């Protein structure tokens, strides 16, 4: 009975991940994803001056324009984004493409869409992202989640090496389920 219940839950989680991935841009639609990434960078700069300041000194940034998460007891989330790197003389370019996905079980309900950015302060963090065969958030380099309270006390002088996470553009309502355990994977070219 217990094993059958686990099998049913595993099948349901797989189905939810498949459904959650359907409405997002496919890896083959790179121009649309590029446009979404550029728009998300601007939205992040407007939403968080702290993120804009950190971005000026960062070695790179993983930006996910739209992550969708949904669930009722069993939940899933999925989104696609890109690693951007600074250009000589200013600006940035899109280097590689990534997905972020998670499944969870527990007390949760709702549906939500949001943007997510990981500001990578040194080449070591960028290298970790580029060479990982799948990076689970919460395992590997430490991440500082920047909310309004943290952002008020941060300056470019107080920032240390590491990764700083920003959430922006939330739409919808979701209770429960965090980003811990989300897996970031490089998309095939």
Keywords:
alpha+beta, 33% helix, 189 residues, disordered N terminus
Question: Would you mind describing this structure in some detail?
Answer:
The protein has one domain. Strand 4, helix 5 and strand 5 form a beta-alpha-beta unit. The N terminus is likely disordered. Helix 2 crosses helix 3. The chain is 33% helix and 41% strand. Strands 1, 2, 3, 4, 5 and 6 form a six-stranded mixed β-sheet that branches. It has 189 residues and is an alpha+beta fold.
The number of strands is 6
Give the uncertain stretches in residue-range form: 2-26, 149-158
The share of residues in helices is: 25-40%
Order of helices and strands: HHHEEHEEHEE
**Number of domains in the coordinates?**
1
CA radius of gyration: 17 Å
The profile of the biggest β sheet is:
6 strands, mixed
Q: Strand pairing plus helix content: what structural class? A: alpha+beta
- Counting H and I runs of at least 4 residues, what is the number of helices? 5
Overall pLDDT level? 77
The termini sit apart by 43 Å
Q: Tell me what portion of residues adopts beta-strand conformation.
A: 35-45%
Name the overall outline.
globular
